[in-house]
Design a protein that fits this description.
Elements lengths: L12 E7 L16 E2 L2 E2 H9 L5 E6 L17 E5 L4 H11 L7 E4 L9 H14 L3 E6 L4 E5 L1 E6 L5 E10 H13 L7 H7 L5 E4 L10 H14 L1
Parallel strand pairs: 1-4, 1-6, 4-5, 7-11
Antiparallel strand pairs: 2-3, 6-10, 7-10, 8-9
Length: 233
C-alpha cells in the first residue's frame, strides 16, 4: 500500500552484549551476569530476547571468564564471542571491531544485566531508528522528584525533561565505533553508547520503553527481577 514506511532489514543489524564486568556492587563471588534467575543466568535471559530477532549476536567476555562455557549460549551457532576490556566502552569497542560494518551497518547494544527487556520494545526502537535513519535508545521518563547534592540537598531538579537511559541502544555501526574510539582516546568518561554519540555531536532519539526493564546492579535488584518474571508467567 502506498505511503507505508519501509520495514527494517534485520539482516543488516548485529547485536552486542558487553559481559566482561564483575559487578562488585552485587557482593557476589561470581560476576552478576552469571547469577541464577528462574533457572537461567541473567546473561541468558538478556541474550535470549535478542536471539528472538534474526540478528547476529556478539558477546564480549573477560579473558578470565570461567562461566560462559557452561551456558547454552556457548554452543549456540548464532552467538560469537570476543575478549572485552576492563570497562564497558572497551568491551563494546572490541565487539564493534569484530563486526563488518558493511555487512551490519546497524548495531544494537544491550546490557548483560538487563534480563527483563521485552521484544516489542526492541522492535519499536529498531522501527523508529530505521525509519528516521538516526540512532536512538530505549528510555523511561523520570517519575520521582530529583535532587542534586552530596549528603545534603543542594537543588531540586526539574524532572519534566529527564529520562532514565535504558538498553538496547541502536546506532550506525561505523559511526558508533568512531565515536567510542575517539572519546576514549580523548579521555572522555563513557557511561553508555549514547554518551559517546552525544560527545561526537551525533543525534540520539529517545524511544520510550517499559520501566520494568531494570538493570540488576544491587542484591535487591535480583529479587525484584524475579518478582517481575513471576508476574509475567
Amino acid at each position: 500500500m502506498s505511503g507505508e514506511l519501509p520495514a527494517p532489514d534485520y539482516g543488516q543489524i548485529a547485536a552486542v552484549i558487553p559481559a566482561a564486568g564483575i559487578g562488585k556492587r552485587m557482593q557476589s563471588e561470581i560476576p552478576k551476569q552469571y547469577l541464577q534467575l528462574h533457572g537461567k543466568t541473567i546473561l541468558e535471559h538478556s541474550a535470549n530476547v535478542l536471539l528472538q530477532l534474526p540478528v547476529s549476536l556478539v558477546i564480549a567476555l573477560s579473558a578470565e571468564d570461567a562461566y560462559f562455557s557452561t551456558t547454552p549460549l556457548a554452543t549456540n551457532p548464532d552467538v560469537q564471542t570476543v575478549i572485552g576490556g576492563a570497562e564497558r566502552a572497551y568491551s563494546v569497542l572490541a565487539a564493534l571491531k569484530h563486526l563488518d560494518a558493511k555487512q551490519f551497518p546497524w548495531v544494537l547494544v544491550h546490557d548483560a544485566a538487563r534480563p527483563l527487556v521485552q521484544l516489542r520494545d526492541i522492535q519499536q526502537l529498531i522501527q523508529q531508528c530505521w525509519q528516521s535513519g538516526q540512532g536512538g535508545i530505549l528510555a523511561c521518563p523520570v517519575r520521582d522528584t530529583m535532587k542534586r547534592g552530596q549528603l545534603r540537598v543542594e537543588q531540586t531538579v526539574e524532572r519534566a525533561s529527564l529520562w532514565h537511559a535504558l538498553t538496547p541502544q541502536l546506532f550506525p555501526t561505523e559511526t558508533l565505533r568512531q565515536a567510542l574510539s575517539q572519546a576514549l582516546s580523548a579521555g572522555i568518561t563513557i557511561t553508555d553508547e549514547a554518551s559517546a554519540m552525544e560527545w561526537a555531536g551525533q543525534p540520539v532519539q529517545l524511544i520510550e520503553g517499559r520501566s520494568d526493564n531494570i538493570k540488576v546492579t544491587q542484591p535487591e535488584d535480583l529479587a525484584l527481577a524475579g518478582f517481575y518474571l513471576e508476574s509475567r508467567a
